């Protein structure tokens, strides 16, 4: 046993020496700072991923008072290096840094840049929290550490135990409660059953100290370390009596509402949950460990009420909604209804505004679940979530209700993140800029959008009109349009296409003119079959792009497109289809899927395709060669008409050349 201890000590001392060693990249003075002291740090990016970068700054992860705290540290450039004074917190045990410039980061090749503070009372020791922080930093598999800091955190069970044991041994007064659970995990990981006695001593200590927080730690040790369900159950009964509105009670109430299937009962249980267990008093770690989701509770109340036509419930709850509840609720009650046109945008607008305003309140108020992001990182994350989850839809909704100034403001903000990579947003921005008479900006958006191949047919028509106005002819426009596109994107998209060669099942269906179309009669032609339905929003969203593709091949007798309406239930679906195609001026040859024998849904042909090719869901676009072999399957819709048209064209051309 002594030899083992000596071996551990050698490993640990070597690791500590490495931490404090100066290098050409990272230096700091004093090398053994005290908590509360200022540390002068210097960073030389030569030879790192940040070499040659400007605007270098640091993200600082301070382990202070046995908790992580994240902040930014501005760096001052001087002679190719960057310097700053890092002020340690008075309770700091250690700090770990990463250096950032733009999208590039440097964490010392996954070794970290770490500074350990010195214990002011016992200079031979590191400060309270230093040993634990260094162990926890790399203990991702134990449920600790800093998300995203390491690509591949490396710490052995032996090393993790060593650092936890050092913390408990050298700072028992400060650490015993704070790191009891990770210490127990370290003991069991290192010693297995031989360590159970020590773990039971930890349990006894926590029980003796008392309090709900310590009993929750005991419960976690029983559940996650010792795997003693009987002990967990017994402890929970004790806690239910001692803390009837505590964490265990919250867990049981949450599980009850989560498994409830009656809508009205689920709403009532969710409302009672928020009354009995307010989110402001929640134990975030316990909730996370036990999958208690306040966003789910809020969505139960709001979304289920909206399904019962009670939109006004949002007024009561929106001001206290957590971050993810806002995102999820906007999607479920605004975006879906807006896309499907289940409600008018005028009806949706006031509720959409409430949710966006609530989302805006988080801009400078980081949610606790994002503790590991520095202020600058949080701003980036917030913008990404705001834009992708709300603004793309919200800009269109604002435009439709005549709120043009607000819509344009949000569109311009969204483009800072998306950079013209979403066709629908580009189209809305063009409309809004036109409303403002900003012609030069309109042309700029048109060109940037086409470079990203994220344009709508309307935008392409505007480019064409501009071209004709300048050159007095449309000759050469197709070549001009191609010249605007980023060739690298086209090459990358084509490279991802997977060509197959499979027998295609025989089929026959009637078209909109009640003419029977047979697969057997189409040999020698390249066939595109687009399976869609009147209720399928992405199917119909893809039609402008498919129209571009159809028009490109309208003079090619050897390429035919069939738009197969499938999975319909209503009695008048054929009339609905014909009206929709006519109203939108789509030059599509419609086929109607057959009903299964004895069935009520039109899915006979599509069902055979699903079984033959292992596909599911619509839209599904299938490309068949002249010999009747399936060559490509294209699933879903990415959102750009011009991109879809190019992808279909590429698949068609490759199919035409296939043996």
Describe the model.
The structure is a single chain. The strands form three sheets. Strands 10-17-16-13-14-15-11-12 form an eight-stranded mixed β-sheet, sandwiched between helices. The protein contains 27 helices and 17 strands. Mean pLDDT is 93; it is low at 1-21. The longest helix is centred in the middle third of the chain and has 26 residues, at 375-400. It starts with a helix and ends with a helix. The radius of gyration is 31 Å and the shape is globular. It is α+β, with helices and mostly antiparallel strands and 659 residues long. It has four domains: 2-178, Immunoglobulin-like (Sandwich), CATH 2.60.40; 293-418, no CATH class; 423-485; 495-657, 3-Layer(aba) Sandwich (Glutaredoxin), CATH 3.40.30. Helix 9 packs antiparallel against helix 10 (263-276), helix 10 (263-276) packs across helix 12 (294-307) and helix 18 (423-435) packs antiparallel against helix 19. Strand 7 (92-101) and strand 8 (104-106) form a beta hairpin. Residues 1-21 form the signal peptide. Keywords: Redox-active center, Signal.
